[in-house]
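Supplementary notes for students who missed Thursday's class. We covered one full example, reproduced here. Read the sequence, then the structure, then the short commentary at the end.
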Amino acid sequence: MAEGYTGVRVINVGPEIVNQAYIDQRVPLSQLDGRITRHLSQNEYCVLKFENPPNSQSALTRVIGGDFTLLRGEVEASGIRPRNKEQRMALDALLDDNIKVVVLTGTAGSGKTICTLAAAMTKFEEGRYERLILTRTMSWVGKHALGFLPGEASEKFGPYLENYMCNIEYLLGGKHKSVQDTIQQYRMDFIPPQLIRGASWMNAFIIADEWQTMGVDETVALGTRVGEGSKIVIMGDLLQRDENIARDQTGIYQFVNNELAKQSPLVASIDLWKSERSEVSSLFADVFER
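Structure (token representation):
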């Protein structure tokens, strides 16, 4: 997000702090100036950085309790490896069973959906979750709606699932015919947001994409569906709000910037600002979103 809480912070430190992070795997918050640390949130990702040209070194950490905790080195989910530090942080949160709510915001093509699907499939394979539940807003680009769509609810929802299908196909190496088999293998259920009221999702990895046009009421309805043993990931690009809703009135913005959420050990929020989709995608994001 261009404004508000991003979940990521760069802190300039001395070289001894960076070295300690790698040696001890942690640095107590008390070792840094309290004027800096008192503003930190739980699960906030911090780059501890020492820069004295031509020398530069840094450590990627996450605030856990009273410590900066070093992120482990290599990380991979379903063949996906992070391409930048924000994706590295996102995968850390997505794969951590102690974090029950992950909010990923950021520019188009920054890897929010692919990283989330990869982590969900990995966790399903580990037996951590029994099913994957995927939803997204049934909104369109532009001012004109598609009009009436024939068929049952699942058929009406189908045209809105292209984001998931493209990413699943990518994870399968472009094997389009294997997509349906993968959906069955990982027990993926696609549920329109209009039908979630009254549901209680137990032992599920829940993914809500394109949520940037949803307000507080819809976000409360979504979050209160999460039952025991479940994890939820909410994603959206707050600069692509096609509908008439102010940025600070969206459910994502309200949740991420709430002090209860920021200080909860159950929550991690990361803003991914770099597009990794293609040079063209990055160009359009830079021209129109920055």
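Commentary. The chain has a mean pLDDT of 89. The radius of gyration is 19 Å. If anything here is unclear, bring it to office hours.
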